[in-house]
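Quick one, T. Sequence first:
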Amino acid sequence: MTIKVRRIVTDHDANGKAIISSDHVMDNVQTLRSGNSNALLWVTDTAPAEIEGKEDPAYRTMDIEPPKTGTIFRMLELAPGKDAYMHRTNTIDYAICMSGKCKMELDDGQVIDMQAGDVMVQRATWHGWANPYQEPCQIIFILIGSKEPSKVLHAAAH
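Structure tokens:
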């Protein structure tokens, strides 16, 4: 399965009337450092976010993390047989499993199963997403920049 996601963006015309400014299947599928495919859907640099402008932030080059005080909205596809890529970001992540199933592993080895329809809120934890199954798994992520947690063990300590 290849990521195919239709993204619709609204805006305002010169008179302030609501319009559809963009409606298309995203063609910016990239590979993250984790080896998973993703389509970046939107990025903000700050919150509250700027809502005006003509630049499409989905075509920016981004790694996993959003800007420090910003957000990222993306679809991730975990390929079948994909091992967990352990990482942590200073973000609150909203994860929505859209199709397939996967496993989310924490740094202590705890594993939680997720399937289509499940949601997760992650709070700057060391984790990795794995897909030991035969079918791809697609997950929507919204990452929101957050403060540094007061207690974080680093991967090197494990």
